[in-house]
Design a protein that fits this description.
single chain; Spore Coat Polysaccharide Biosynthesis Protein SpsA, Chain A; 2 domains; 4-stranded mixed sheet; globular
Length: 257
């Protein structure tokens, strides 16, 4: 018998965890891998029938690798689901077929992203493939990619046709908080790589980001919603380069001191 474990990473997800777990009853093992939440996440998860494993958080890649190590001796496959995602019955059935299909080390799953409560099909948010169904012992996460994790597979990758439902970015405040985190991370990586911003980057890079989102990735199909998102992502591209410039300026001041 092929054993499927579903793992949900959590930190203070009391508002999401019950609705998420309710869509995961098809799993043989249901595990909530919690980063010592300070709300009711763990208690709600246990009440819903999940096994709660507490593990200190360092970064997303490390946390997912730790979860893989936890289940690899008791399960054949693991499906990672975020607390703000839902698995439809159609996707659940497809997952059950996939784990019985020989030859694959992992499967990627498309997502339907709801941003500010609206299904968003342009500007880069669709199909938004996520490599989340992994064969135990044949998959791991790149430890150098702390955010926007990269899965390393020892074998072929399949593609599924049914979607996760992702309740992404509840409102503008949530969006801005996340983008500020991503910008700071991306700027720090560029700085570590020795990338220095040039004056033209502060104009051309935001414009390219906007064009890519709105035109190339068809953000225009979402109307004013797509225009807003494309403009916001262009703004955060500018912010990234401003943060990068600040890092180099800080280094210059330190060198002089």
């Amino acid at each position: 018998m092929t054993v499927l474990a579903v793992v949900v990473l959590t930190y203070n997800e009391a508002g999401n965890i019950q609705a998420c777990l309710a869509t995961l009853r098809f799993a043989d093992q249901l595990i909530v891998f919690d980063s010592y939440s300070t709300d009711e996440t763990a208690a709600l998860a246990e009440a819903a029938g999940a096994v709660v494993v507490r593990h200190p958080f360092q970064n997303y890649a490390q946390q997912r690798n730790a979860a893989l190590e936890t289940v690899e001796h008791t399960a054949d496959w693991v499906l990672f689901v975020d607390a703000d995602e839902r698995v439809t019955p159609e996707l659940a059935a497809e997952v059950r077929v996939a784990v019985q299909t020989p030859g694959y080390a992992g499967w990627r799953i498309p997502r339907h992203n709801y941003i500010f409560g609206r299904l968003t099909l342009g500007a880069g948010w669709y199909p938004d493939y996520q490599t989340r169904l992994l064969r135990c012992g044949a998959a791991r996460y790149d430890p150098d990619r702390h955010v926007h994790e990269l899965v390393l597979l020892d074998g072929p990758l399949g593609t599924m046709k049914h979607h996760f439902i992702h309740y992404n970015y509840r409102d503008a405040a949530h969006f801005h908080h996340k983008q500020r985190v991503y910008c700071a991370y991306d700027a720090s990586i560029m700085y570590q790589q020795g990338v220095r911003p040039r004056p033209r980057n502060f104009v051309l890079q935001p414009w390219r980001q906007f064009w890519w989102r709105f035109v190339t990735l068809k953000g225009w199909r979402d109307g004013l919603h797509g225009l807003r998102l494309s403009a916001l992502m262009a703004w955060y591209e500018l912010r990234k380069y401003r943060l990068l410039a600040g890092l180099w300026a800080e280094r210059a001041r330190s060198d002089k001191g």
